[in-house]
């Protein structure tokens, strides 16, 4: 079986624009000399990152703020293009990346289910078969005909998660997914991810919680300033039950 995801020598360069605060006089002159104070800097957010996720495996992406985790996940999801290198995905990828990505705020929750699923490559007839399960999982029955712009961030997260997991993806990309939402829904999501993992789904999980990565993942990659500084298997320690004698 081919690997689920191959990340080959991926680099990503952004152009940072620095705009200095302008004084009144300069601001006035600036009307005639636009962008005179803008400085551009090339910034390497990812530098030659490579790894493979085998079918049914789960990889945890770790690293400090700004180390490049979300950028890498967006490249794997096809939302961003790498500046160098390439990503190969074998199977249907469901990205749970940022709130609102893949949704239209003007459309209702119901309409957004179809929009979002079409981005994952599902046909409307396939989605119709699953739409009841999606709505039920999201627990948003009463709001499903309301425009998404009136949803709270937690409600949007529920809908995004419900679509992604009920379409049975081969590979789930999850970026700090559980940062929003109440405890009961978070637990339901974690149970669902565990169930999907036991059914062979591959996973790339970005998390600041080492516990979460230890629980769900077999391997980890740690990034620092866009470079892989550490990687390896996650050894699950079986904690023996200790009986205390009174
Ligand atoms: N569109 C962009 N334009 C310019 N710089 C960007 C862009 N997106 C990300 N960056 C920069 O790339 C670096 C990596 O950002 P990224 O969001 O991937 O980090 P992260 O590891 O996911 O951080 P966090 O843990 O805070 O979510 C940061 O320095 C960020 O400022």
Description:
The protein has 246 residues and is of the alpha/beta class. Helices cover 32% and strands 28% of the residues. The strands form two sheets. Strands 5-6-7-3-8-9 form a six-stranded mixed beta sheet, sandwiched between helices. It has a three-stranded antiparallel beta sheet with strand order 2-1-4, covered by helices on one side. Helix 6 links the parallel strand 6 and strand 7 (202-206). Helix 3 (109-119) packs across helix 4 (124-138) and helix 4 packs across helix 5. The longest helix has 16 residues, at 183-198. The radius of gyration is 21 Å and the shape is globular. The N and C termini lie far apart (54 Å).
How is this structure best summarized?
The chain has seven helices and nine strands; from the N terminus they run βαββαββαααβαβαββ.
Which terms would index this structure?
three-stranded antiparallel β-sheet; 246 residues; alpha/beta; 9 strands; six-stranded mixed β-sheet; globular; 7 helices; binds adenosine-5'-triphosphate
The proportion of residues in beta strands is: 25-35%
Low-confidence stretches: none
Number of helices: 7
Shape annotation: globular
Our Rg estimate from Cα atoms comes to 21 Å
Neighbour order of strands in the largest sheet: 5-6-7-3-8-9
Helical amount among residues, as a percent range? 25-40%
Domain ABC transporter: 26-244
Protein name: ABC transporter ATP-binding protein
GO molecular function: ATP binding
Family: Belongs to the ABC transporter superfamily.
